[in-house]
Amino acid sequence: MKLTTLIGDYPVTKQFRTLTDRFEFGQYQGSVATAFKRVVRNLEFDVAEMAIMTFLVAKAFGKPYRLLPFVVMARYQHPYLVTNKSLSPKELEGKRVGVRSYSVTTGAWIRGILAEDYSVDLSRIEWVTFEEAHVAEFRDPPNVQRAPAGKDINAMLLAGEIDAAILGAVPTDPKLKPVIPDPEAAAKTWGERHGAIQLNHLVGVKNTVSKATADEVYALLLDSKKAAGSPATLPHGLEANRRNLEVAIDCAYKQKMIPRRFTVEELFE
User: Fold this and answer.
1) N or C, fewer C-beta in 10 Å, the chain?
2) What is the pLDDT of residues 137-190, one digit of tens each?
3) Residue 19 Cα to chain centre, angstroms
4) Mapping DSSP to helix (H, G, I), strand (E, B) and coil, where does residue 235 land?
5) Architecture of domain 3-75+198-268
């Protein structure tokens, strides 16, 4: 049987996408993240790339997926919070901040950074979202409102309709600048203090996939990563990712996105 599969096109997955005819790859438009709702709502895929926060929320609501310890995307999120004003992180209290969806991974990491490193009261920010959470059962906190239909996050930011925004890519518009001072240095300090990286996307498998088949998928992913030069910034293996996952779980729990702190082992059960 072929495995229905959702995997984005990255250097570490290039060979995986062509290595075998065992997989039937799902199509998506633009970023692979546009298909994450199909993973956790429709349960459409046997093997699926998933954002870590999407996975954790999905697990909290009993979605039938487990992780493979294979990272396809990771980055420090500090540069992705931007403004066209002169605002410090603490000055975001009382302001309106746009984010694609409240539970997206970049948004969760940045909120954690603001609360932990800059003592920002997240409940005093009005979060303006543009779409629903990937997991249908997730409910936004009361200080979240939906932008009017048809509105664009970048256009609202430049027009002053929101004070800052969490974007998926570092903007090239010179009017927009990071809220966090010297974001590269701040990211380095964060990483050293936590002994971790900020995970974005990993690979999961549906619980109906046998262990033997999951092991086969994982081995093919490792071969693909090796063919891409085995970048050290994308660790594989449970122990290599244990601390990274602990920090991600803690970030989600502190923001009440999940009801309890899962153990790392639970994510792979």
Assistant:
1) N
2) 999 999 999 999 999 999 999 999 999 999 999 999 999 999 999 999 999 999
3) 27
4) coil
5) 3-Layer(aba) Sandwich (3.40)
